[in-house]
Amino acid sequence: MLNNPDLKQLVEGCVNKDPTAQRELVDTFSSMLYTVCLRYMGEAHLAKDVLQDSFIRIFKGIHTYDCERGSLQGWMRRVTINVALKQIKKQKSRMESEIGDNVSHLTKASDVTDKLAAEDLLKIVRTLPDGYRQIFNLAVVEGYNHREIGEMLGIKEVTSRSQLSRAKQLLRKKLINMQTDESWAKIS
Q1: At what angle do helices 72-91 and 19-41 cross, to 10 degrees?
Q2: Which of 89, 148, 155, 182 could be 159's S-S partner, Cβ–Cβ 3.0 to 4.6 Å?
Q3: pTM greater than 0.70 (yes/no)
Q4: Is there a contact between 150 and 157 (Cβ–Cβ < 8 Å)?
Q5: How many alpha carbons lie under 13 Å from residue 52 in its C-beta half-sphere?
Q6: For the chain (length 188 residues), average pLDDT per consecutive 10?
């Protein structure tokens, strides 16, 4: 990662539309932002599209970045999350999933989670329906509260809470099923 004077110079270069500075910004931050995109989009080809759209938005708006208000990495992450959420809204106008409420009786699956690496858990999270995955990522991974999530997604706070609860229940069910058939050992 670059130090502060280098970052400031890099931002100034991007504001001035210097291709070398733009390339350096992409090279420095694309892997971190791709991870964010993949968490929200669930599929590599969709994540790559969102990453590209994110950099377009970043370059168009970099003149608004204020280093006094936060880190460049945090600002770019926020832009990327917003682009991903906008893309998901385009793909689906409704966030309600076809998953029923019949998963509420599940038990904890801590045994299997102890045997999984973080990357394996993220692969399982990517299998969640879009609405659940969005809210799970915003709440659990990014740390937004339900009021903020509601504002970002244009939903009620209570909807965010219930979707997160259902996402956790569905994850728990998937982990229990994996533990039962020992498929945790062969995640690919």
Answers
A1: 50
A2: 155
A3: no
A4: yes
A5: 5
A6: 75 94 95 93 91 96 90 94 87 43 39 57 83 88 88 89 91 80 52
CA atoms within 13 A on the CB side of 122: 14
Question: What's the start-to-end Cα distance of the chain, in Å?
Answer: 30
Contact 160, 135 (CB under 8 A): yes
Rounded CA separation 39/127 (Å): 10
Taken in order of first residue, the domains within the chain and their CATH numbers are 4-91 (1.10.1740.10), 110-186 (1.10.10.10)
Closest CA to 124 of 183, 81, 181: 183
> Residue 12 is which amino acid?
E
Tell me the two tokens of residue 51: 């990453």
Structure tokens at 52: 């590209």
